[in-house]
Design a protein that fits this description.
The protein is of the alpha/beta class. It has 13 helices and 7 strands. It has 3 domains: 152 residues, Glutaredoxin (3-Layer(aba) Sandwich), CATH 3.40.30; 121 residues, no CATH class; 33 residues. The structure holds zinc ion.
Length: 318
């Protein structure tokens, strides 16, 4: 999840947050390190910190292995993102791993309740997914947002979230169903409206994220992965202009193509979702079944008649 600049200001513009940042800063310069780890001494966090060059990892737990693993993962993920997008980390980064949801509310009160991680500015990201299995996917997702932000890219929210989910490699069954339902009810949210996804309810956000990933994957199918470094270049052109120059089609044509592809992909879903269609078709299915049975029986009787004739013929003396 990425907070757009206008909401980012709201997320950061509160005195308590600033005071905590100052407390953290004082703590950073006053700590004594042991084996690369530092005991966190501030009022807000009681945990550990690991500093590696321009990367700072902080946790509210005493789990040293978490920070070591995370440091390795940050390197690997950054490399993966570079291979896909040609984006590199160009600035310092602090990552907070928070287990205590109370801490999350203190640090980032604007975080939607359904979120598991958040990038508040190009140098800070939070991972607070309660499921330990999920934190790696969340880290991949948020690191993608960080790299986009550190490279001064202005992207449509759907593309930014689609890219982050693609890098995270997470697939959501409930998102798939939400998209299927939206296709059937013609409730698919226009991509440009997804700029407000952070203000959505959990249910609507689920659809928004599923759409973002779906549209992003469709773009890769339609244009190939080689389009990504072109779209992720910071220049004077808008995203729309960069897309049109690279693909020879407008972003609107792309969206129309994606919507058509969605209808095709979810055509079978109508039968599963609306069994009424099956009931309506039932008389025809019964009729076809009846004629098939009749045809099979007649064929069988003809076969018996032929066999009987052959037996009679064989039984007669020459
Ligand atoms: Zn995101």
């Amino acid at each position: 999840m990425w907070i757009p600049p206008e909401q980012r200001l709201r997320a950061l513009n509160f005195p308590a947050f600033i005071s905590r940042i100052l407390i953290c800063f004082l703590w950073v310069i006053s700590i004594t390190t042991t084996n690369g780890f530092a005991q966190e001494q501030s009022e807000t966090l009681h945990g550990l910190m690991l500093q590696q060059g321009s990367l700072t990892l902080v946790t509210d737990s005493q789990d040293t292995s978490l920070l070591r693993q995370a440091a390795d993962q940050v390197e690997k993920i950054t490399e993966d993102i570079y291979v896909l997008t040609r984006l590199r980390r160009s600035d310092s980064l602090t990552i907070y791993f928070l287990n205590n949801l109370h801490q999350v509310r203190k640090f980032i009160p604007t975080a939607p309740t359904w979120s598991g991680g958040l990038t508040t500015d190009p140098n800070t990201l939070y991972v607070y997914d309660s499921d330990p299995v999920e934190w790696l996917a969340t880290l991949r997702h948020e690191l993608t947002h960080v790299l986009v932000a550190q490279n001064n890219l202005t992207l449509p929210v759907w593309f930014n979230e689609g890219l982050a989910q693609y890098v995270a490699g997470k697939w959501s069954w409930s998102g798939y169903l939400a998209l299927g339902n939206a296709v059937l009810r013609s409730d698919v949210i226009p991509l440009s409206d997804l700029d407000m996804v952070l203000t959505y309810s959990r249910q609507k956000a689920e659809l928004g994220y599923a759409e973002s990933l779906g549209a992003f994957k469709y773009m890769l199918e339609r244009q190939g992965r080689s389009i990504l470094p072109i779209l992720l270049t910071s220049d004077d052109r808008t995203f729309k202009e960069r897309y049109q120059a690279a693909s020879q089609e407008t972003l609107l044509d792309f969206e129309i193509g994606w919507r058509e592809d969605l209808s095709r992909s979810y055509a079978f879903y109508k039968l599963v979702k609306f069994p009424d269609i099956l009931w309506l078709a039932m008389p025809f299915i019964v009729l076809i079944g009846y004629f098939l049975m009749r045809w099979r029986n007649r064929k069988k009787i003809r076969q018996w008649e032929i066999e009987e004739g052959w037996e009679l013929h064989r039984g007669e003396p020459d």
